[in-house]
Design brief:
Layout: H1 2-16, H2 26-29
Length: about 70
């Protein structure tokens, strides 16, 4: 009986992982009327590092035009 519940639980949890990637839909995620989109050009800073577990710090970015 324990084995049966274990198998059922594994099937349920494995099916949940199939939907772990969010799906962006155009009609839900595009700008709406009244939204304000702000862009700013900044100077280039190399990210310095690649791979997993790397944190990039872009807090020192300087705007090109003030």
């Amino acid at each position: 009986m324990k084995r049966f519940f274990y198998i059922v639980a594994m099937i349920l949890f494995s099916s949940l992982s199939l939907y772990s990637q969010p799906i962006l839909e155009n009609h839900l995620h595009r700008p709406r009327s009244g939204d304000v989109l702000v862009r700013e050009e900044v100077s280039f800073i190399s990210p310095d590092g690649k791979g997993s577990g790397v944190t990039w710090d872009f807090s020192r970015l300087v705007p090109v035009k003030k």
